[in-house]
Amino acid sequence: MRPSMRPSPPRSLAPAFLLAPALALLAAGCAHAPASAPGRAAADFFPLAVGNEWSWEDQSPSNAAASRGEPRPVRTVRVLERTADGYFRDSQRGELRVAAGCVQDRVRQLLCGPVVAGRSWRSVVSVSSTERYEIAAVDEVVETPAGTFRGCVRVRAVNRAASGTDLVNEISYAPGVGPVRIETFAVVGGQSALQFRALLRGYRVEAR
């Protein structure tokens, strides 16, 4: 998730969308957010169970198919199994679990409670890369091809790619559903540019 290039479609569920995050002025289309999501834990925003499935439609501005009037590419990810150490493995080789109040993969914490606007944390991805996370807003309304979702939480992940260049990834999670909007921006010299956008097109979620 290359400051000057649109990232390749992610291989795994949420984690791969966060491999190249960056700072941006944030997405339109959502309502005013209060300071917290009372009574909700991080796990409520990303239900994990074998058989759960999500499909996202690529609505990136540089999408060539859309410019030709063709159907937009869709990526579907399905949870296939639970590993011996408690991770849910998906069809794109992603692995997620809930631990210590956070939804996490094997490297980074993607969403952590308490679910309050301004809550922040860091994930050390390598000796030279640290991703900074923040709950940018709660109780948003997000419109997608799969419908309108209320009570969403938006998480912003920021990574310094080079001097003067930040990469930002923002994921909006709907309660009981999971990620409904994913956006990646590059910020170079103070100017932000949308690199990638995916919106939920369909999903099938069973109880955890």
How would you describe the overall organization of this protein?
This protein is mainly β and 208 residues long. The chain has one domain (15-204): YmcC-like fold (Beta Barrel), CATH 2.40.360. 2% of the residues lie in helices and 50% in strands. A twelve-stranded antiparallel sheet has the order 6-5-4-3-2-1-12-11-10-9-8-7, with no helix packed on it. The protein is globular, with a radius of gyration of 16 Å. 41% of the residues are buried.
Name the features:
208 residues, mainly beta, YmcC-like fold, 12-stranded antiparallel sheet, 1 helix, 12 strands, 50% strand
Provide a compact summary of the structure.
The chain has 208 residues and is mainly β.
Q: Helices and strands, in N-to-C order?
A: EHEEEEEEEEEEE
User: What is the name of the CATH class?
Assistant: Mainly Beta
Using the alpha-carbon principal axes, give the shape: globular
- Biggest sheet, open or closed, and with what strands and sense? 12 strands, antiparallel
* Helicity, as a percent range: under 10%
Number of strands: 12
The protein's oligomeric status is single chain
In round numbers, the mean pLDDT is 82
How do the strands line up in the largest sheet? 6-5-4-3-2-1-12-11-10-9-8-7
**Span of the ends, CA to CA:** 28 Å
Q: Kindly report the CATH topology.
A: YmcC-like fold
